[in-house]
Design goal:
Number of domains: 1
CATH class: Alpha Beta
Structural class: alpha/beta
Largest sheet: 8 strands, parallel, barrel
CATH topology: TIM Barrel
Number of helices: 11
Helix content: 25-40%
Shape: globular
CATH superfamily: Glycosidases
Strand content: 5-15%
Radius of gyration: 21 Å
Oligomer: single chain
CATH architecture: Alpha-Beta Barrel
Length: 346
């Protein structure tokens, strides 16, 4: 009888193992800069609510929290971000926070190399995750390390960050997040461009063992007229195939944490209506791939007033508050979001 029960139990285990785990809901979000105090809290919160965005992406700069070596304090300069997180979380949204960049007390404030700096980064990560407990359960480790994001002037000039060093930072960051919130989603990569040799090296360094999803920034506007949503997804399909080869059996999802087209006056700038069309197409193509976990459009507001500056003209909303056509085509209007219980981490 015992052998029959044991056999039945084993068969049930095999049956449940064969049933795929239901994927988390597809997220539609935008990049904001409340954490840099560049976006107004009230205007940002209103736009997020009216657009029905299920998420926003912002960053919690390490250098603001550790202004004295070894002492971590949540500063008043991040109070607006703190409030935005609370507001969106109460509406049932899921903020995505970037854990970046360096700190002047370690490795010259740039990309992290030494064991001491990486250990200090892990302490900062634990502090942030603990501070946002019950309100944030998804985090991204660094931003565009592969092109020198957050590096010193020399590192940024080289536009290259070591994949092996990033794998070490990611490993420490992943462990730090999980130590405070085991169920949190940890994204690694924040990968800019299409340097697949970098991805190969990252994989050989064990990078794919320290993340729950791979984040990518498939910008294609520099390709001119060829830079369309379809071309972006050709790159993404190649990236997914590469990830599956380097991390067999994981079936890792890809999270597009930045994507967009600028409407600046100059080379590779496109019209507002073109961006609206592209936003609709991009979202449709993303939703057609079950392995994509979400899209965070870059970004909600313009970042400056220079019409010829590419970086100033990615917004769904102008600096004066005018909503471009892409705001509606990407957000698709308000989506119902049920309130989360206080303290819920999902």
């Amino acid at each position: 009888m015992k052998s029959v029960i044991l056999l039945t139990g084993l068969l049930l285990m095999e049956l449940f193992a064969a049933v795929p785990t239901q994927a988390a809901p597809f997220q539609v979000g935008v990049g904001v800069h409340v954490g840099q105090n560049r976006n107004n809290l009230e205007q940002t919160d209103t736009a997020l609510a009216q657009g029905g965005f299920t998420s926003f992406r912002d960053e919690v700069f390490w250098h603001r929290l550790e202004t004295k070596r070894g002492l971590l304090v949540f500063p008043p300069s991040l109070n607006d971000l703190d409030q935005l997180v609370t507001n969106v979380s109460k509406r049932g949204g899921k903020p995505l926070l970037i854990l970046n960049y360096g700190n002047r007390f370690y490795d010259g404030g740039g990309l992290l190399v030494t064991d001491e700096a990486i250990a200090a980064y892990a302490r900062y990560v634990r502090f942030v995750v603990k501070h946002f407990a019950g309100r944030v359960d998804q985090f991204e480790v660094w931003n565009e390390w592969n092109i020198g994001g957050g590096g010193t002037p020399d590192q940024r000039k080289a536009r290259y960050g070591s994949p092996e060093d990033y794998a070490r930072v990611l490993r420490a960051g992943y462990a730090a997040v999980k130590s405070e919130n085991p169920s949190a989603l940890v994204l690694g990569g924040a990968f800019a461009g299409y340097d697949y040799k970098w991805i190969e090296a990252f994989g050989r360094a064990g990078g794919f063992s320290s993340l729950d999803g791979f984040s990518a920034h498939p910008y294609v506007f520099a390709e001119g007229r060829k830079g369309t949503p379809e071309s972006a997804f050709r790159h993404l399909d190649e990236l997914k195939a590469l990830i599956d080869r380097l991390a067999p059996g994981r079936n890792l999802r890809v999270y597009i944490t930045e994507a967009g087209w600028p409407v600046h006056a100059g080379a590779n700038g496109v019209s507002e209506q073109t961006v609206a069309t592209y936003a609709t197409q991009f979202l449709q193509l993303a939703k057609s791939r079950a392995w994509i976990g979400g899209v965070w459009w870059y970004d909600l507001f313009d970042d400056g007033d220079e019409s010829s500056n590419t970086e100033h003209r990615f917004g769904l909303i102008t600096r004066s508050g005018t909503r471009r056509p892409a705001f509606s085509s990407f957000s698709d209007g308000p989506r119902p979001m049920s309130p989360r219980p206080t303290g819920a981490t999902e």
